[in-house]
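Can you make up a protein sequence with its backbone structure tokens?

===
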Amino acid sequence: MDSSWRRRWHRITSDEMSLGAAAIAFHSFLALMPLGLALLGGAALIGGDRLAVARITRALDPVAPQAVGEFLTDLLIDADRRIHSEWWVIAISVGVAVFLGSRTIVALQRALGAGIPEVAVRRGRSRRLVAVALTATGGLAVLLCGTLLVAGRSLFVFLAHWTGRPGLPVLWTWLRLPIAITALFGFLLLCYRYAPPQPVRRAGRAAALATAGVVVGSIGFGLYLGWAPRLGAVFGTLGAVAAALTWLYLGAWAILAAAALAGDDAVPGEGAVR
């Protein structure tokens, strides 16, 4: 193993990289709890009727195991019965999710600076403002993608009737995954460009590598969800929590490792001054 590959290997397996990925995964997991409550409550208030539940079920069928789809739709129906018009629950959940999500971005900023010597770290108010802005952008991307995934088929069915092309709904089935991957790539590119004071070197390449790593990890997590019902209610649920934490950790590590590998051939001294 030559010196360049040895340097890369030590960089992506360093303690700083592992601890940074763990911090990002931990804050991400905390942020997902209130975010899930907010999304569930909003979906229940907007579309808790049978027709909306049927549309969501059709959208989940191609991408989620039957047990997962039934669990989510049952949650939606139950939330519609309990939340009703209590908007304050959703508002508080959104606020907590934004706060914890911004802490995730702060952890990302610190991890990039600790694991990659060429990357500087924002300080003070600038770090927090950028973290909140990136968190809000990520939340809007999740909301937009979620809306497209749920309502996109209905739109393409309408276009099929309008244009007389019956194959358009099938086209949407093939477009959903590229849309989600493109949104993930765009968000990671924004993080690499604006989380540090100066953009990560070769941010586009880093975003592409990180997206590939996150997608591979997500495929593995999806395979586990399809297999989890065999473990039963107790062990399947506990295993899902462990698998989710592992998935978040591997995704965070992929994001950090991609930034380190993409800019590894930087000219010494060309990076930002710490």
Q: What stands out?
A: Residues 3-262 form one domain. Residues 221 and 247 are 6 Å apart (CA to CA). The two ends are 30 Å apart (CA to CA).
